[in-house]
Amino acid sequence: MRTILFDFGNVLAFFDHQRAVAKLAAFTPLPPHELTLALYGGVLEEDYECGRLSTAEYIRLASRDGQLTCSPAEFEAAFVDIFTRNDAVCDLIPKLKPKYRLVLASNTNDAHYRKYSEQFADVLKHFDARCPSHHARSRKPHPEYFAYCQRHTAHQPIECIFVDDMPSNLEAAKKHGWQAVLYRPGEDLASKLREVGVEIG
Fold first, then answer.
1. What is the rounded radius of gyration, in angstroms, for the C-alpha atoms of the chain?
2. What whole-number distance in Å separates Cα of residue 119 and Cα of residue 89?
3. 177 — alpha (psi -120 to 50), left (phi > 0) or beta?
4. In a 3-state reduction of DSSP, which class is residue 179?
5. 50, 77, 96, 163: which has the highest count of C-beta atoms within 10 A?
6. Coil, strand or helix at 125
């Protein structure tokens, strides 16, 4: 193995959309479950994560669908405040950096990416490349996304290993030619990586 690709959400950090929903609920007559669907369900979220909508466009449309009366700035402040650090995985990253090329492979939108790039700058500085889906204009598990990431690995698919928390994404990665490791919060990722030949310094 020469390149290790990491998902972000529920691997490097945890996220909870309901934190945003709870803050935005004060600005809408909709119940929380309907607001959740307006913000995160269907085509709107996919278009934003695939870079087909700007942040301003997403906020306008999500505010319309969610019947929100808050300002765009209030919306974005609540929308991005969802991440908490996963120390167990973050602490592994600098130990892997001397030997491996590290690539971020994350389904994410512009607002979330800007937020966590700042919030987790101490971890992400070790990555050689970042491939958020809104830059790739495609997202996991679509083949086009993995092809985009491949161009940033600097190595052949057989030399790459991918860590993600979603089995469907890992199956797609295997079809692309990568090795894959399923990670679930609370598991010992270091042991799982060692099992597939990764050396942790």
1. 17
2. 15
3. left
4. strand
5. 163
6. coil
Provide the pLDDT for residue 42: 85
Contacts of 137 (CB under 8 A, 6+ apart): 50, 51, 52, 144, 148
Neighbours of 60 (CB within 10 A): 14
Q: Is it the case that residue 86 has pLDDT exceeding 80?
A: yes
Query: How many angstroms separate the CA atoms of 15 and 105, rounded?
Result: 16
Quote the CA–CA distance of 80 and 7 in Å, as a whole number.
Answer: 18
Q: Which tens digits make up the pLDDT trace of 133-172?
A: 999 999 999 999 999 999 999 999 999 999 999 999 999 9
Question: How many Å apart are CA 139 and CA 135, to the nearest integer?
Answer: 10
Question: Torsion-angle region of residue 199: left (phi > 0), alpha (psi -120 to 50) or beta?
Answer: beta
